[in-house]
Amino acid sequence: MSFFDALGKKDIEGAKKYATKDSEAMLGMIQMGMSMAPKDVKDTTYDKSNMEFGDAKIEGDKATVPVKDKKSGGTTNYTLKKEGGAWKVAFDKATMTQMGTDKMKNMNNGMDKMNNGMDSAKKMMEDMNRMDTGRSMQDTMH
What is the pTM of this model? Predict the structure, then answer.
């Protein structure tokens, strides 16, 4: 949470205290992006009041914390690693790539469900049309 507090205040140096050593390059890129943004634009990407933190799932010296965006309803799993005896947010290229991959999988799963629903609806319409055609033939024969 302290990590997001710092990012929300655009305090990259503060955020680095809560992040792994490997995260410095990614945080540098975020800092560059923040410095290029117009001053009057309020960035709420890292607004902690917008986030709901789930329970950490710990596996040895690695942990995963689900963070839900209250506005979109989407959840992102953040990775933490034990470094120097303290838990640090892994905000490095590999972790960010994994987050992106997970988001794509979730989007694809949603698309698959939507396509399956569409296929079911199409089949139902075809069945209804066949039933109507069958009735029309019966009506003609009487």
Answer: 0.60
